[in-house]
Known about the structure:
Elements lengths: L2 E3 H8 L3 H9 L6 E3 L2 E5 H13 L15 E12 L3 E8 L2 E8 H7 L6 E7 L2 E5 L2
Antiparallel strand pairs: 1-3, 2-3, 4-5, 4-7, 5-6, 7-8
Helix pairs in contact: 1-2
Amino acid sequence: xxxxxxxxxxxxxxxxxxxxxxxxxxxxxxxxxxxxxxxxxxxxxxxxxxxxxxxxxxxxxxxxxxxxxxxxxxxxxxxxxxxxxxxxxxxxxxxxxxxxxxxxxxxxxxxxxxxxxxxxxxxxxxxxxxx
Length: 131
């Protein structure tokens, strides 16, 4: 049987280790002990992942009013602008995201290296917003 350590399970679901631990303690997902560590059976983790996808808590976020569902929180690492367009690079967890937008939009959002931002991905477009 495949099992996942808490940190591995959290990474797969895109949540913090603490959130995963709270879910285990609350009984939201089954766990066992292996070599003194808490592990989550792969089958149970898959069931939790499906339930999260089927019943996302979108009411608590702006995502309830946005058609783009793939939202990745990150930090702006580069902004290249000219008179018309801007190229904005973000690091969102393990992902590097690049968005092209008007220079005016980048300026209005206050995008510069070090700023927190969210990349909203829909199809081939990356939409950047500030939290």
